[in-house]
Design a protein that fits this description.
heterodimer, A: about 650 residues, alpha+beta, Rossmann fold, Immunoglobulin-like, 3 domains, 8-stranded mixed β-sheet, 6-stranded antiparallel β-sheet, about 25% helix, globular, B: about 170 residues, mainly alpha, 3-stranded antiparallel β-sheet, 3 strands
Chain lengths: ~650, ~170
Amino acid sequence: MGKRYSCALLTGLVAFALTGEWAYPASPQPWLGTRTRAHPTEGAVFEQYLAPSESLDVVVALKLRNRDQLGQHVRWMTTPGSSEYRRWFSRSRILSDFSPSADQAKMVADYLSQAGFTNVRIEPNRMLVRASGSASAVRKAFNTDLARFSRNGRRGYANTRDAQIPSALGDIVLSVLGLQTLDRMRPLNLRAKQVLAAGTVHGINPVNFPLAYGAAGLPPAAAGNAAIITAGSMTQTIADLHQFQAQNGLPALAPTVIQVGPASGDTSGTSEWDIDSQTIQAMAGGQLGSMLFYTATSLSTSDITLALNAAVGDNVATVINISLGVCERAANADGSMSADDQIFQLAIVQGQTVSAASGDSGSKECVSRGVPVAGAAYPASSPFVIAVGGTTLFTDAGGNYAGETAWSGSGGSPSLFEPAPSWQSALGTGGFRGVPDLAFDGDPNSGAIVVVNGTNQQFGGTSLAAPIFTGSWLRIQSANNARLGFPATWIYSHGLQGTLAYHDVTSGSNGDFSAGPGWDFTTGFGSFDVAAASLLTRSSISVSVSPNPAIPGTPVTLTATVTGNAPTGTVQFQQNGANLGPPVTLVNGVATLVTTLPPGQDAITAAYSGDLNDAGSSTPGPFIETVGTHVTPVPALPLWGELLLAGGLLLLAARAAAPRRG
Amino acid sequence: MGRLLPFLAMFACVYGVLEGLYFVLPDEFLRDVYHRCFTAVGADIVRLITPGEPVAARANILQSSAVGLEVVRGCDGAGAAFLLIAAIASYPARLSRKLLGVAAAVALAYALNEMRLVGLFYLAVGQQPWFLPVHVYLAPTLVIALSCIYFAWWTTFVPVRSDEAF
């Protein structure tokens, strides 16, 4: 009996020592879960727990304040006819109303410091707090263990238990990123075996995509600002871009590199950034207001989240391109999905659009034990991005559009986690987000011939399709002189109406799904003719006031006339920048408001809400209405007049009443 | 000459009483009277003459889109009317003639003032350079002249007995 107890005790002590429990006394405080779960490691080989002193970087994602309200604003701002349609928030509004408060961010930063983390930094928009620390600090702060694994020849670490936080931070912390490097974002490009300069299906110089997709008639996106999420070194990419510009006679646009996190010399992604930058500039017509590389240290989901957050926090780019993806199972488990979705929502309410490649593995973007399994690529499966699938593009001898079929690698499937957004409710996606929304050329065989490491190479993948859409959307916005913002509702409303501006792709398959008429899981609604699509967005509004000048206190009639595609919706009149009455419903393209204006000059403007067929628009300048101000009293007789009249009357009276002579 | 002094005294007395009563009338009351009697009628006249002309009676202000003519105490022609009334009331004539004369004098003063207001309105809208000279010199002179003509005309219909002569 005694021997048996001794053995059990010895076994317990050995297990205790091996798991390291002796080094990390349990926290006395109650723990709460986060969105960061124990990382899925099926098919991976456990190697060992990380040594307590092993260093790593973590990124703590904080919860938005007023998240439900933000969700409402996302809906209103993307819903034609809403009074908020395309009326974007400023950065300051987001900081004041939706970002975590400064106190909340400081609480998290203090907590990390107390747990032993160093270099604790709160991101400017307070959505993320990043810090450097050790495995022991992670254990102390998040009550989880980190272990090293290898899978398919790739080594990385991952948290073996859910990441937790003290209950005091339960309302603040959303997820903890950086606890796994086993699953990383990967560039979604594929290189063709050779440059195919001719043939039924052949490579295409990116400068010819505008012709193929009907954008050549539109002006370049000279005022458009494009952001590209990248990682590693950008030196070769910039050199390749300049060579591409010189080869094709494009303006020497110099990209700006915004390094997010420590710089890295990693050049493994060069071909990806080359495809993105060269395709966007070409599709945008050669000119851009700016091209911004938001460059992460690595392709880990936490580093990419940091770069993405910087692009949204800066709010300079109108379109953000992400030609990266990771199996959504991993993104869901490590908490980057919930963190990124918040950031995407902020992008939408600022009027930014995120374009994401839908994946290159067809209907199954996830792999388990070496076997493809259901699951979409993230961030394409986020409802808050435009997911762009891939096609095989055919052009005629002149380079004009000659048709598309679904590319077999085009990522497309229902999401396993993300709910269907309202604009997909009519599609029958089983209540889950359906990927993709649109599709452009992605087949490596009809891919882009880009400059990579100084030589022309042909690449495809949805990494090509996403920047084609990015450049198109920049160009459409530029043509309409407006920040049109997240176009999901616009895409789906026109797609469901069967607009002729779209190229519906009806043949081809990506594995489990086949292309057909209308929306499908291979190519979404297909591609579009950029110029024709641009016309769908166009509206203009003019305003007049009658009478002008007007009389104080008397009614004036404000008339707004909206032109477009039989526009409906509402018009909000404004007087000197402030709303003047409630929004007025358009009748036959005209909205009138009868009101009174105070004396003085008033700048009258009007904003059209937009509808399914017309982008919202604002009057280019104010109508200056003058309301009479000067009032003068008008005395009838001055004093001299009264005296004169009195004298005159007296004289007349005296004369008339004088005795008659004779 | 013997009746001249009583005439002057009566003239001064009637005029003084009328002016006194006039200045104790409340502003609010006068504003309402001016609106009903002057600005509303003036606006109607303007619309009648020039139907498309933007005009409004804003309380005691006859308002165009460019300028508002404000009728305040002293702008109503009361001064001229009071002088006429005082002269007629003091003049040696039968009461019935005096009453008729006063009534016609009030009507004349009102009509003259309304015409003056409407005229000034048109000048304010379209002939700004003429507004000031007409307002300050021409209109008062015309009021004086027409008032005197009226009074002279009235006295021709009123026989003065020799015992009532000054």
